[in-house]
Design goal:
Layout: E1 8-12, H1 17-28, E2 32-37, H2 40-51, E3 57-61, H3 67-81, E4 86-89, H4 104-132, E5 136-141, H5 154-173, E6 179-185, H6 218-221, H7 227-240, E7 244-246, H8 252-264, H9 267-271
Parallel strand pairs: 1-2, 1-4, 2-3, 4-5, 5-6, 6-7
Helix pairs in contact: 1-7, 3-4, 4-5
Length: 274
Amino acid sequence: MDSFEGAVAVVTGGASGIGLATARALAREGAAVVLADIEAGALQRAVESLRTEGLEAFGEQCDVGDLRAVQALAERTYSRFGKVNVLFNNAGVAIAGPIWEMRHEDWEWLMRVNLWGVIHGVEAFLPRMLAAGEPGHIVNTASFAGLVPNDGLSVYCVTKYGVVALTECLARDLRGTNVGASVLCPMRVETNIDASERNRPPELGGTERPSPPREGDRELVGRVISAEEVAQRVLDGIRRRELYIHTHPEARPFVRRRFERIDRAFEALHAGGA
């Protein structure tokens, strides 16, 4: 996609942080944006903030972990606009702690939002995007923690590794179509994810054990950048059809070392006489 003028974009986790900043950036370039979020109050405020700028914005309360809710989001969006050009599967939550302290509810909550939320978005929107034949793009939010294991973020890493793999496979499957795919892999960004347990459902632990996430130890954190910086990278990445959208140059050596470790592991084949 070279232009967002006249496009329709759906952004999950759109009431704050990266989602809201990206929705605003898309709307300023001429797109109509649908913000989807589980928080009704924050969603209403986000939509109003865009409309006060004269931007075309709509809000839809949606739990991305619920397939039927995402299907309903797609149905309402297509009923209103007849198309979707950009799908930004961005909603995410986090919890920190060593893997042996993680409860089953911790795994289920993060898998439900971070991974199933992306899967549900692809299931509900992609077939219609392909059938329309218009230029389109799907961006899935992973993390630096989806490329390199981060201390204390075991469950979060597992879900974000899944988002990276899903998007890599999606990009291969979409070759030769009018729809592209990208995975966003930021380090630390100024967002509300540290307070994500505010939206944790009671049946999955509620707010029994608040735990602020951290992207690994101090050495791995890197700079904390604004959501607006990330939003601009998302738009640039869509235009360039980048598979991996990076935001922090300081992440590069850690990614390189991970793959060097994987490559060196093949030396054991020769050492063992295989």
